[in-house]
Specification:
This protein is of the alpha/beta class. It has 18 helices and 16 strands.
Length: 378
């Protein structure tokens, strides 16, 4: 099967190369596509005991506390923001090349650690062929994606032959993985609850009720702002999920502030929160903002195609948390937090102005089994 797969991947690459080359001129892909699909400025790793593979910025941040426990490591990523975050953790960071390049690009490590759903057949096959132990951590299968997995069950049954151990988020994930042919599985909870991100900079709490619109996506800011009536003692911070949308959201937030005669400022220019409406246009600051928040409205959940975002990161600071209804990718994490309000955008104002309860992490997780597993190969 692996020969057929490699052949089909090669054909796909042949027909898609020109399109990818054109796409690489977009700012969002100007580093990742040349590196992944043309090996531009993307040499092999330096020798490392542990190879961690994650996708993007959020995944790298979630893995950071685990990766920092190992000195000899390499990190592979998929996106530009993921590369920037991983490079701050480890100089031995690379973009993961497209699968046809992996047979001659991938270097042997003692352990390959794959995060969540980064299931690339050539990656796990070549890692095993070169003698690595392969483990999948924080494994989950959402309600939405389970049907798709089942449709390609033959493929996943083959792929899971090359994964030695899986650490799943929940018993439900374990059962679903079993139906797809996964072998040894252990439930340890969600690693994002085991390693809570810590504050990197302490900001003075404004003498106001701080409302944060966190990790918002296209159309969500406008939808939420239309239903938000800021009181005299309220201060608003808007934190878009993706940096390429900062300019777009700056315009929206500025117009909202002007309409209501509020002051407006960008964090990148002032490095503090002293305006009535603030745009958080710098990566890596969201957890610092959570620490001074009173109300957090979690984005990625008011539009149907995202699936929600991690509530654990802000719940550790016990603000009121409001989320939209579309949280199919984060159900396991939402189940670990008490007092999250699931609402439509039109209901946000009523919750904020009511006697809402503060959130609380109810169930913790542990990464000890994962750490022990990795160390057993060193």
């Amino acid at each position: 099967m692996i020969i057929i797969y490699y052949f089909l991947a090669s054909i796909l690459y042949f027909f898609g190369a020109i399109f990818l080359l054109l796409l690489s001129f977009k700012k969002k892909y100007n580093r990742s596509i040349p590196a992944r699909f043309f090996l531009f400025d993307n040499p092999k790793f330096q020798d490392a005991d542990v190879h961690f593979h994650a996708c993007s910025f959020g995944e790298v941040q979630a893995l950071k506390p685990l990766m920092q426990k190992f000195d000899s490591k390499a990190i592979s990523v998929v996106t530009n923001t993921g590369f920037e975050a991983a490079s701050k953790i480890c100089a031995n960071t690379r973009f993961l090349p497209f699968e046809i390049f992996l047979p001659f690009w991938l270097k042997k490590s003692k352990t390959l650690v794959i995060f969540e759903a980064e299931l690339w057949l050539m990656l796990v096959f070549m890692a095993k062929l070169k003698g690595s132990r392969v483990i999948l951590i924080n494994a989950r299968i959402s309600d939405r994606s389970y049907k798709s997995y089942l449709k390609f069950g033959f493929f996943y049954r083959y792929l899971f032959k090359f994964i030695d151990k899986i650490y799943a988020q929940s018993e439900l994930d374990k059962e679903r993985l079993k139906t797809l042919g996964a072998g040894e599985i252990e439930v340890v909870g969600n690693i994002k609850a085991a390693f809570l991100p810590s504050v990197s900079k302490i900001y003075e709490k404004p003498k106001a009720r701080v409302i944060v619109l966190a990790s918002t996506h296209a159309s969500e800011e406008e939808m939420i702002l239309d239903n938000l009536n800021l009181k005299e003692n309220d201060l608003l911070i808007i934190a878009p999920r993706h940096p390429e949308r900062f300019a777009e959201v700056e315009k929206l937030a500025g117009e909202y502030a002007k309409k209501h005669d509020f002051s407006f400022a960008k964090f990148s220019q002032r490095h503090k929160f002293d305006a009535k409406v603030n745009l958080l246009d710098t990566l890596g600051e969201l957890v610092n903002v959570y620490a001074i928040s009173d109300v957090v409205v979690l984005g990625g959940s008011f539009v149907p195609n995202i699936g929600g975002h991690n509530p654990i990161e802000c719940a550790q600071f016990n603000p009121v948390i409001i989320s939209g209804e579309f949280i199919f990718n984060q159900k396991a994490l939402f189940g670990l937090v008490e007092n999250i309000y699931i609402a439509k955008a039109s209901e946000i104002g009523g919750i904020i102005d009511g006697s809402a309860k503060k959130s609380k992490i109810a169930v913790q997780a542990s990464a000890e089994a994962i750490i022990k597993d990795i160390r057993s190969t060193l």
